[in-house]
Write a structure and sequence with these properties.
- The structure holds two protein chains of two kinds.
- Chain A is α+β, with helices and mostly antiparallel strands.
- Chain A is built from ten helices and nine strands.
- Chain B has three domains: 113 residues, Acyl-CoA dehydrogenase/oxidase, N-terminal domain (Butyryl-Coa Dehydrogenase, subunit A, domain 1), CATH 1.10.540.10; 107 residues, Butyryl-CoA Dehydrogenase, subunit A, domain 2; 128 residues, Butyryl-CoA Dehydrogenase, subunit A, domain 3 (Up-down Bundle), CATH 1.20.140.
- Chain B contains twelve helices and eight strands.
- In chain B, a hairpin with a 2-residue loop joins β2 and β3.
- Classes of the chains: A alpha+beta, B alpha+beta.
- Chains A and B meet through α5, α6, α7, α9 and α10 of A and α1, α8, α9, α10 and α12 of B.
């Protein structure tokens, strides 16, 4: 990483933090999306020739962490990834990713159903399908059933008949999993900060909660889960920038999912009843973490897939394959 | 909030060649290794293997050539350490000397102390132990009562140390003694270099619950040492002893102790595995991968002259929890006859018994999490 990369990321972080903080979970698509479009987040991963920002996946990690940290209820990351996958192709509107689909490509049209599509109701196109067989589908004429995920965000069902479709490189499941792992890292870091602040201020039995060893131990455990999620996300972004990131995607989504589960539980535990209220901000983070944990493949899916690859390669390659991922 | 600072770093170009070198050396000696104890390899001594490592130039990697070192980078050293641990090689004889004692002497020791002891450590021939814990003190290390008093131009040591790993095979101890009568807690402590064959030193074994002999009690009964047995500055012992803790706590030995168990579990599954077993493999490797990233990030920052103390303790506790969970998780995922002589059964049986020690040695879980909490600004 060069100084220019660092400089670019600092600039990105400043911009994203400023904008996301003012919108957060209170985002309304119609009101707030134009600002995102104007700032060019969808073009983050497009080259400058393609009209984009020329960013790397490590740049996207910076934005994804902040989106997670601010519980941003807009498809900034989905659209950045979708836009990259259709670079050079004619698709209009906001792009997003379908975690699962049931349908068929016939020539240059696609018919079938896309499920749990983030902000599907607002999408101009959706990337769907398996790795190696992914397609970009024009969803401007989709029949939409509006649904809501556990975080309260749109997760819609889209039915399509002979919609225009083009094959693309890159699987929406893996890339969706990658951005969710990054968002979890951001949200968990924020939940940790809120928790540390809360226990320092809240007095019980005549002293701050932070002075109780049992509370300290919980916060320490949360910090370690947060650190593990961050490190996994960092390595994932680095691998996406290198080439193949199939190992890192599975590992980061699995590890971040575990961190989300443990971290959300501990954040609520140290907050007591106040954290369980609608009014207190913690749930915007914890409910999202838990939703993201399951989206685009949960721990069961990714750990099984990773385990299958490892067992197929055999015991004698377990270690050497692992270190080969980071060796020059 | 990002408590764990990650700075980009790259593994050294020499990494693949170093790995091959370590793997070849392990292959040469592997037939002699005791199968079960490979699950706790960094406290299992094998002087013959340590000497072989020294001859191959794989010890003292970061030190100046003047003292028998090889002037390699911290990450090159890291590669060698993780290869040895992943291969479950018995590296216990030299581990503490190479990790802590020689770096301590190179930083604080006199020229005479360096020349006398450091080259032997790099050769894999001189081993060391650390005298910190005392009877009754437990985790409260600052309550040191063993004392050192001046007598003319000599020091006279009295007292007792306990839980001293490897004292029975070590040539020297770096011990923490109260050198100022009447001082309390962290003040008035000094570090001494004690050749263990000095008259008045008695080493007695403490046998652990598996029947192994790793720990010892060490008595000091009017042990007379020359003035230059003092390491560093008189009264600065606490600071010196804790300065290198990040090195002790963040290394790969904090999460790779049970790597061979995972390897043998995968070997067992090669003939067929159910979804739950595959998921366990995937989950454990995901955790391993994140821990390795954390540990390497700390190593890279230490190499850059920083002291990421908070990150280091996080590696220790998270790593300990991970390696402790492995034998239990495997036992839940697969039927095992723990009286059998197969590699997996021997390793599971042994590591299940020693696993509790992982979060005791090098600072208990409670102490370590307290340090993390302090890093978060909670205490």
């Amino acid at each position: 990483m060069t100084d220019m990369d660092t400089e670019r990321q600092t600039m990105l972080a400043d911009m994203a933090a400023g904008v996301f903080a003012g919108i957060g979970w209170q985002a309304e698509f119609d009101r707030d999306w134009p600002r995102m479009a104007e700032l060019g987040f969808s073009g983050l991963l497009l080259s400058e020739d393609e009209g984009g920002f020329g960013g790397s996946w490590s740049d996207l990690l910076v934005v994804a962490r902040l989106a997670g940290e601010h519980a941003l209820a807009l498809p900034v990351l989905e659209s950045a990834v979708a836009s990259r996958l259709v670079a050079g192709l004619e698709f209009e509107g906001v792009g997003t990713l379908a975690p699962s689909s049931d349908g068929e490509l016939s020539g240059d049209t696609w018919s079938g159903t896309l499920s749990a599509v983030p902000w599907g109701r607002h999408a101009g196109f959706v990337i769907a399908g398996e790795e190696g067989g992914a397609v970009a589908i024009d969803t401007s004429d989709a029949q939409i059933t509006e649904r809501t995920g556990l975080s309260g965000e749109p997760r819609d069902t889209l039915a399509l008949q002979n919609a225009r479709a083009v094959r693309v490189d890159g699987g929406p499941l893996a890339l969706g999993a990658a951005i969710r792992a990054m968002q979890i890292a951001g949200a968990l870091g924020k939940a940790l900060a809120i928790s540390a602040n809360y226990v320092s201020e809240r007095q019980q039995f005549g002293r701050p909660l932070a002075k109780f060893q049992a509370v300290q131990q919980s916060l320490a455990q949360m910090a370690m889960e947060s650190a593990a999620a961050d490190c996994a996300a960092f390595e994932l972004a680095r691998s996406l920038d290198r080439d193949d990131a199939s190992f890192e995607t599975a590992a980061a989504k699995t590890r971040a999912g575990m961190a989300a589960s443990t971290g959300a539980a501990l954040a609520h535990q140290v907050h007591g009843a106040i954290g369980f209220t609608r009014e207190y901000a913690l749930h915007h983070l914890t409910r999202r973490m838990l939703a993201w944990r399951s989206e685009f493949g949960g721990e069961a899916y990714w750990s099984e897939r990773l385990g299958r690859t490892i067992v197929a390669a055999g015991a004698d390659r377990l270690w050497s394959d692992l270190v080969a991922r980071t060796d020059p | 909030m990002q408590t764990f600072t990650i700075k980009p770093y790259a593994m050294p170009d020499s990494a693949p060649a170093l790995r091959e070198k370590v793997r070849a050396l392990v292959a040469e000696h592997e037939h002699r290794f005791e199968p079960a104890r490979r699950a706790n390899c960094w406290v299992t001594p094998d002087p013959e293997f340590s000497c072989a490592l020294g001859q191959a130039g794989l010890l003292g990697m970061g030190w100046s050539k003047e003292y028998g070192g090889h002037e390699m980078s911290a990450l090159e050293r890291y590669v060698v350490l993780e290869e040895l641990l992943a291969a479950a090689a018995p590296v216990g004889a030299h581990w503490i000397a190479d990790r802590q004692t020689a770096p301590l002497l190179l930083r604080y020791g006199t020229e005479e102390q360096r020349r006398r002891w450091v080259p032997g450590i790099a050769a894999g021939e001189v081993y060391a132990c650390i005298g910190l814990s005392e009877p009754g003190a437990g985790s409260d290390l600052a309550s040191v009562r063993s004392n050192a008093r001046r007598d003319g131009d000599r020091w006279v040591l009295n007292g007792q140390k306990v839980w001293t790993t490897g004292a029975h095979i070590s040539h020297i101890m770096i011990g923490l003694f109260r050198s100022e009568a009447g001082s309390e807690r962290q003040a008035g402590l000094s570090q001494f270099l004690i050749p263990l064959d000095t008259p008045g030193v008695t080493v007695k074994p403490i046998i652990d619950l598996t029947g192994s002999h790793d720990f010892n009690e060490v008595w000091f009964d009017d042990v007379r040492l020359p003035a230059d047995a003092l390491v560093g500055t008189e009264g600065e012992g606490w600071k010196q002893a804790t300065a290198e803790l990040s090195l002790e706590r963040s290394g790969p030995e904090r999460y790779l102790t049970s790597q061979i168990l995972l390897t043998e579990f995968v070997r067992r599954l090669e003939g067929g595995a159910d979804a739950g077993q595959l998921r366990l493999v995937g989950r454990l490797v995901s955790e391993l991968s994140a821990l390795r990233q954390m540990s390497m990030a700390v190593a890279a920052r230490l190499a850059g002259g920083e002291d990421p103390a908070l990150e280091a303790v996080m590696v220790k506790d998270l790593g300990n929890s991970f390696e402790q969970a492995i034998p239990q998780a495997i036992a839940q995922a697969i039927e095992l006859d723990l009286s059998a002589d197969d590699a997996l059964e021997l390793l599971v049986a042994y590591s299940m018994q020693v696993a509790p020690s992982f979060s005791l040695r090098g600072g208990t879980r409670e102490i370590v999490r307290g340090i993390v909490a302090r890093g978060l600004g909670l205490r």
